[in-house]
Amino acid sequence: MKSSHTSLICILMLSLVALHQCVRMKVKEIGRSNKIYIPPCFHDSCDHVLKKDCYCCGSKPDLCWEDQHYCNTHCPPLKPLIN
What range(s) does the Embryo surrounding factor 1 brassicaceae domain occupy (predicted)? Predict the structure, then answer.
C-alpha cells in the first residue's frame, strides 16, 4: 500500500513538472511546433520490368523516378490542404 502511494506521488510530481514546462512555452514556439513536413515523393513499387523500386510524386502519381533526390527536386510541390 505504501509503495503504491509513493509511485503515485512520483507520477504526480513528474506531471506537474511537465505541465509547468508547457505553461512556460511562448505562443510562437507552440505555433511553430505543429508544422509537419511532407516530402513531395513517396516510395512505391514500379510496374517496369527492370526497376522494382521507384519514387513517385504525391501531386502526380504517374511521374516516377528511380532516384529519390531527383524526384524531390523535379516533382511539383504538393498543394496545401489548409490555408
Answer: 34-77
Three-class secondary structure of residue 46 per DSSP: coil
- The dihedral built from the CA positions of residue 52, 58, 63 and 68, taken in this order, carries a sign that is negative
Quote the pTM value: 0.46
Instruction: Give pLDDT tens digits for 46-57.
Output: 776 566 788 888
pLDDT bin (cut points 50, 70, 90) of residue 76 is confident
* Together in a domain, 45 and 23: no
Single-letter amino acid code for the residue at 76? P
Dist. CA 77–CA 71, nearest whole Å: 11
Q: Are 43 and 71 in contact (CB under 8 A)?
A: no
